């Protein structure tokens, strides 16, 4: 009898543990899908369209940009970074340049209102005649929070240059 009780107890623990893991896995996938649709695709679209206001709306008002690529390592308010990027958005909107950015991820963790995303972004910029003027792959970490059903970036860390091989490995 004691063996049966122990077996039932372990079986219930295994069942509820598995159910919780499946439920957590489903909510993780739902969060990732939601962030892809409402954050990362918005970033890509606003960069491509030169929509400065749309891009700015994806940033938390107290967001921070950390750049540790190259020699000029810095941490600045996202609002200051946006001002530095504004002309590129305006040039894209006016057809003077064509910019694109896409993302691939190696780790994505979080819950219903927080997310830490690690991966690589690939950015290209062409002049008005289509000539490539800038291209780079960068290792990225982003800390996101969900506010009023909208994901915004609290911190973007552009960590280091990445290679095309590293990008391809994240398919």
List keywords for this structure.
171 residues; alpha+beta; 6-stranded mixed β-sheet; 6 strands; 40% strand
Task: Please give a structural write-up.
- The chain is an alpha+beta fold and 171 residues long.
- 44% of the residues lie in helices and 40% in strands.
- It has helices at 2-49, 52-56, 78-93, 164-169, and strands at residues 59-67, 74-77, 97-110, 114-127, 132-147, 150-161.
- It has a 6-stranded mixed sheet.
- A hairpin with a 4-residue loop joins β4 and β5 (132-147).
- The longest helix has 48 residues, at 2-49.
- It is globular.
Write a concise synopsis of the structure shown.
This protein is α+β, with helices and mostly antiparallel strands and 171 residues long. It has helices spanning 2-49, 52-56, 78-93, 164-169, and strands at residues 59-67, 74-77, 97-110, 114-127, 132-147, 150-161.
Q: Number of helical segments?
A: 4
CA-based gyration radius: 21 Å
Main-sheet strand order equals 2-1-6-5-4-3
Look at the structure and give the mean pLDDT.
90
Report, as a whole number of angstroms, the end-to-end distance.
53 Å
Q: What is the share of helical residues?
A: 40-55%
Poorly predicted ranges (pLDDT <50, ≥5 residues)? 18-22
- Strand tally: 6
Order of helices and strands: HHEEHEEEEH
Structural class: alpha+beta
Overall spatial form: globular
Strand content: 35-45%
- Biggest sheet layout: 6 strands, mixed
